[in-house]
């Protein structure tokens, strides 16, 4: 199986809901019972129409108390095998409200949990118990997110979710992790142990049998690139998340607030436009509107009068499509209008240009400082955007900030109510003063004594994707001043694709599962499938980067994921929490150091 998350989604939908031929009662209505973990999985992968087409007429939470019996309905249970959800299932089975139950878990279930279910099935209503492996959220076709909110056993659950991803993709990988992160060392070791221990029940055996080279699980730490989430993005999906916010494919916009669904699977325009820059987006939307006008012109009242009955019938059958198209145009019009408003209100043309100048070293220190002061003196620039600029500046010019007192000057301006409204908070002030302490700590652990090593977060080479593509049109460069910055992920993946040793020997440690070692030996060559996980969260701009790399070559296939989908606000909130909770003097704020179809029928 390729690294195609939409195929995983489609496969599991069929297993969950599509009735098999010859099944008795296959036309009966179904109730879907879910928990708080599988609810977002279902909502992000499947539409209400898809569920209705498979006779799913009701969706309920498994922990809700039901009072009435509905024996004319069958029940599909799709839950995560947590203690709470299994207890709710046991309670439901002891007092069965539905005719028959098909139980699906989105990850491995323990023997003791199976015994609980078997004991609770006093009425013998359980038809089957099956393990699926989708303990993660599918954001885009090549972008996933692991849901870990409120978990007590963070590393254990993180490992379990990553392994479910591997099993759903039918991949047993080599593991590489950034060796300056204790968290990644622990996570990598847990994934290795999980794979090796599950070889006894054949879960990871033979997954790579049709591949000439092993896949790679690449574990990265967000703390090794704190800059990318701070840079204002200028492509459609990224801008929506940055300026409005996307929560599990739902965008809330307008007054009164309206919820809009964004899905590349069900929205053709969004699929084509999601990675376009702001200028190309507006052009494409205009063409989209013109095409709609052209299609609907022939169905106007005046034109209908001239049609014969046969042609009239054809036109009438298209009306639902026209209405759907009209609604989609209105949706994207609302989104683009709100983006345009935010760009103007936040003065993002000025802010973003200076961000790019700082991050990409486009001007000298003196010129950049002058522009910084000009923007900090403007009350029309939001305090949050000023804070982001100061963070970028302080990371770029560490020595100058110390010797020239630049940070003191900037903090004074941010505390002046005539220049900044509102003035900076205590958390923002702490972050500005300690930003370099936090991330210099990570650079010192790599053995590089250069105190300015944080500068490695900025700029850097771009992948020459023509090396990996036969297309003469493939080009990863841009003359757009607002899109000069390239995330650090670009360099890491580029080194892997070009077999460069600049990262592999000094920056990454490698773990090889037993089953992979037995099949391929200890050498790592000719990698093709790369599964990336960023602990601390990934951005939509990094997702766009991976999309562009996938489009440029047929030699590699890459997917990206993380434990959060970041925008600058989410990332800043994480940093505020860190500086408020951590004892920066001791450096304790960051942990750095040196089956064939993949489901199991269980009952």
CATH architecture group name of the largest domain: 3-Layer(aba) Sandwich
Strands ordered across the widest β-sheet: 6-7-15-13-9-8-12
The total beta strand count reads: 17
CATH topology of the largest domain: Rossmann fold
What does this structure look like?
Pfam families: Sec1 (PF00995). Belongs to the STXBP/unc-18/SEC1 family. This is Piso0_000761 protein. It comes from Pichia sorbitophila (strain ATCC MYA-4447 / BCRC 22081 / CBS 7064 / NBRC 10061 / NRRL Y-12695) (Hybrid yeast). With 603 residues, the protein is an alpha/beta fold. The radius of gyration is 27 Å and the shape is globular. The protein has 23 helices and 17 strands. The chain has four domains: 5-134, Sec1/Munc18 (SM) protein, domain 1 (Rossmann fold); 138-227 and 460-566, Rossmann fold (3-Layer(aba) Sandwich); 236-345, Sec1/Munc18 (SM) protein, domain 3a (Syntaxin Binding Protein 1, Chain A, domain 2, Alpha-Beta Complex), CATH 3.90.830; 348-434. Helices cover 45% and strands 13% of the residues. A seven-stranded mixed beta sheet has the order 6-7-15-13-9-8-12, with helices on both faces. Helix 10 (278-297) runs antiparallel to helix 13 (319-345) and helix 15 (365-376) runs antiparallel to helix 16. Strand 8, helix 7 (182-197) and strand 9 (216-221) form a beta-alpha-beta unit. The relative contact order is 0.13.
Question: Brief description of this entry?
Answer:
This protein is an alpha/beta fold. It has helices at residues 5-17, 38-45, 48-53, 83-94, 111-120, 154-169, 182-197, 236-243, 268-273, 278-297, 301-304, 309-317, 319-345, 348-359, 365-376, 383-396, 398-404, 406-414, 426-444, 489-497, 514-520, 540-552, 568-581, and strands at residues 30-34, 56-61, 74-79, 101-105, 126-131, 137-140, 143-145, 174-178, 216-221, 250-253, 258-261, 508-511, 529-535, 538-539, 557-562, 565-566, 600-601.
